[in-house]
Specification:
- It is a single chain.
- By secondary structure, the protein is mainly alpha-helical.
- The chain has a single domain (11-114), classed as Death Domain, Fas.
- It is 77% helix and 0% strand.
- Helix 2 (11-39) packs antiparallel against helix 5 (73-87).
- The longest helix is centred in the N-terminal third of the chain and has 29 residues, at 11-39.
- The radius of gyration is 16 Å and the shape is globular.
- 25% of the residues are buried.
C-alpha cells in the first residue's frame, strides 16, 4: 500500500515489460543471425568480444573460446551471437549497443538502427 501512495509503479508490469523487451532483443539477434555471420568482419567480431568482456557479459574463458577456438570468421560470428542470445536481455542489449558503435553501416544493413530505437532505454 505504501508504494501506491508514494506513486511508485508496482514491480510486476515493469518486469513483464523487461521480459518482453528481452524477448524482442533476442528475437532481433535471431532475425539477423545469418546475415550477421555472412557480413561481419573479423575486427568487428574481436571488438564486440572485447566490449562484452569489459562489460562482464563474457568471462575470459568465453572470450577466448569465441576468438581462439574458432577457426573461421563465420564460426566466430556464429559462436558470438549464439552465446549472447543464450545469456538473455542484458547481453543482447550490450551486443546491439556495441555493434551500433563499432559498425553503424552493418547495423543499418541488418535493420538494427530503426527497429530497436528506444527498446533498451529503460532497461537497467
Amino acid at each position: 500500500m505504501r508504494r501506491e501512495r508514494m506513486g511508485v509503479l508496482p514491480l510486476r508490469p515493469l518486469c513483464l515489460w523487461n521480459m518482453a523487451a528481452g524477448a524482442k532483443l533476442r528475437g532481433e539477434l535471431r532475425r539477423i543471425r545469418s546475415e550477421f555471420v555472412e557480413r561481419v568482419s573479423g575486427p568487428v567480431i574481436k571488438g564486440l568480444v572485447d566490449d562484452l568482456w569489459q562489460q562482464k557479459v563474457f568471462s575470459t574463458e568465453e572470450k577466448d573460446y569465441v576468438i581462439e577456438d574458432q577457426k573461421s570468421k563465420a564460426d566466430q560470428a556464429r559462436r558470438l551471437i549464439d552465446m549472447v542470445m543464450g545469456k538473455g536481455e542484458r547481453a543482447s542489449q550490450a551486443m546491439i549497443d556495441s555493434m551500433k558503435k563499432r559498425d553503424e553501416h552493418l547495423c543499418s544493413t541488418l535493420g538494427l538502427m530503426s527497429s530497436l530505437a528506444g527498446v533498451g532505454e529503460l532497461l537497467p
